[in-house]
Amino acid sequence: MLSLLLAWVSLAMSLTFVPLAQAGTACAEKKTDPHAFLNATSLAERTILALDESGAQVALIGRVGQDLSRYGLRYSHVAYVWRDHPKGRWTVVHELNQCGTASSGLYDEGLLNFFLDDLFAYEAVILTPSKDLQTRIVRALAGTAPQRMHSASYNMLAYAFSTRYQNSNQWVLETFAAAMSDLPVHDREAAQAWLRLAGYRPGLVYVPAPTRLGARMFKANVSFDDHPFGRRMAGQIDTVTVESVLRFVQQRDAAAKMRLVAAE
């Protein structure tokens, strides 16, 4: 009972509602579905318990915001979750698209709010790096790296090796590069150069021409003009997916541990 109580206290302390920002969706006033709220609460509680059990300072956390199975993907959005964040225990730090526009911002929020974003499935993946990497990541998050690695020009399918746009998973990856590099990484271009040398491989998403045209015409947060022309015309979109981020971190850190958490 004590551990459950502590989990709820941690959840309450870390809860910060962020209006007018969702991961790639249009903002709209709507009543929270009671069933969805209970599922989000259960998932947040179980995630806090798992994080506490891990003894981690910081971890990467992914959620299932939409059904991407047709692209061979499970998770849609990855973030950092930081135990001793100045704003509260187990605070999520991530980039969010602002209401389906072509802009993004950086946000700190509690885990309950993180899971209240109209999820497709109430499941999370937690990747806990080794102690050394955690120390590097916390140092980066506490410094200026988050702002230096952020671009407000949002594109859900941004090319992994271009600085014209950025998607939310790309911000996590480039911040990781800034944390990992032994040389100063002052900007996104330097982060992407490090990622190339380190062997990062983007996720490959196949998007046929009719879908590309429709998305570009009707969605402000989707563009393809930053992708190499030949691959774009072939429908081969190289973007930063959650799976590609987790795979790369595991390749760099053999001691990283992955855990899945689901709502009861």
The general outline is globular
The side-by-side strand order for the widest beta sheet comes to: 4-3-2-1-5-8
Largest sheet: 6 strands, antiparallel
Helix content: 25-40%
Question: Helices, strands, pairings?
Answer:
Blueprint: H1 2-14, H2 34-54, E1 58-64, E2 77-85, E3 88-97, E4 104-109, H3 111-114, E5 121-128, H4 131-142, H5 145-148, H6 168-180, H7 188-198, E6 203-206, H8 209-218, H9 229-233, E7 236-239, H10 242-252, E8 257-262
Antiparallel strand pairs: 1-2, 1-5, 2-3, 3-4, 5-8, 6-7
Could you write a compact summary of the structure shown?
It is built from ten helices and eight strands. By secondary structure, it is of the alpha+beta class. Residues 1-21 have low confidence and may be disordered.
Word description of this protein:
By secondary structure, the protein is of the alpha+beta class. It has one domain (2-262). The chain is built from 10 helices and 8 strands. The strands form 2 sheets. It has a 6-stranded antiparallel β-sheet, sandwiched between helices. A hairpin with a 2-residue loop joins strand 2 (77-85) and strand 3. Helix 4 crosses helix 6 (168-180). The longest helix has 21 residues, at 34-54. The protein starts with a helix and ends with a strand. 41% of the residues are buried. Residues 1-21 have low confidence and may be disordered.
Keywords:
single chain, 264 residues, alpha+beta, 10 helices, disordered N terminus
